[in-house]
Design a protein that fits this description.
The protein is an all-alpha fold. The chain is 62% helix and 3% strand. The longest helix is centred in the middle third of the chain and has 22 residues.
Length: 272
């Protein structure tokens, strides 16, 4: 009961803060010192996951640029609008996060940190599924380090609990997030839209990629605006690896995407 009460109260406050924040021009980013250290430790995992899941012929990004997007979303997900507006509440955030994990261990389907994914989304990833307007696509996806075989579970609550145990492990959370962004690339390709970091942020937050859908979705617009505040921090973390010279992928010429193509142009704009 206590966990549910805390979760409900903080969720209501978060919703109110999001509404108020929609009137703000910019967010002021805050990174908890302990999380800053965690991100430094996760940098190799972020770079490795980016190399596994970036599809430069679709994204128009180098692996380093894709890594910046992964880091960007992790920074943004660590705190919400409420903690930005009311700094004293930052001390309560770990309890809120732990409460959601506890509920999922009982079979719930709440978003959990550090990547803020739901078990149901992680399950789609494990099943190679990408939801689209008229059903679902199936594309080959992998989650390096996962030990879950969804077909081996007959109880959904047990499966959700097992997935929660994986997506709350920092390195595996990075891998699941990168795989989810890869799904966003396939969704964008399916809808014929160019890719930018904003596209992938909207996909992660609302499951949409089309510019018209993003413009029509206030939550996605607010999420993108807040995420943008963390761009300098994410770029600083990834550093030189975000540059083309540090990327081991073939050039756009070698992958068949010309520098003037929509996907390549989107990649060049994606981290601006």
């Amino acid at each position: 009961m206590l966990i549910a009460a805390i979760l409900t109260s903080v969720t209501v406050l978060r919703s109110a803060a999001i509404g108020a924040a929609s009137e703000q021009a910019e967010a002021t980013p805050y990174v908890r010192p302990a999380f800053a250290q965690t991100m430094e430790e996760l940098r190799p995992a972020i770079l490795a996951a980016a190399a596994r899941h970036n599809r430069p012929e679709i994204s128009g990004m180098t692996d380093g640029e894709f890594a910046v997007v992964i880091a960007l979303l992790l920074y943004n997900e660590h705190f919400g609008w409420l903690e930005d507006d009311l700094p004293p509440l930052r001390a309560l955030t770990p309890f809120y996060q732990a409460a959601q994990v506890d509920i999922n261990r009982l079979g719930g389907n709440l978003s959990v940190w550090p990547s803020n994914l739901r078990p149901s989304v992680a399950l789609e990833i494990l099943r190679n599924e990408i939801p689209v307007r008229d059903g679902a696509l199936v594309r080959p996806l992998s989650v390096a380090g996962s030990r879950i075989n969804p077909a081996a579970y007959t109880d959904q609550r047990a499966l959700n609990a097992a997935i929660t145990a994986e997506i709350t492990q920092p390195e595996l959370a990075v891998e699941y997030l990168a795989a989810n962004l890869e799904r966003g690339l396939y969704r964008a390709q399916h809808e014929g839209v160019p890719v930018s970091w904003q596209t992938l942020a909207a996909w992660h937050n609302q499951g949409i990629v089309h510019p018209a859908d993003i413009r029509a979705n206030p939550t996605a617009r607010d999420y993108i605006r807040r995420t943008a505040a963390y761009l300098p921090v994410a770029r600083a973390l990834i550093g030189g690896a975000a540059g083309t010279a540090a990327n081991s992928r073939p050039s756009t010429r070698e992958t068949g995407s010309s520098p003037g193509s929509p996907s390549a142009a989107a990649g060049l704009r994606s981290l601006q």
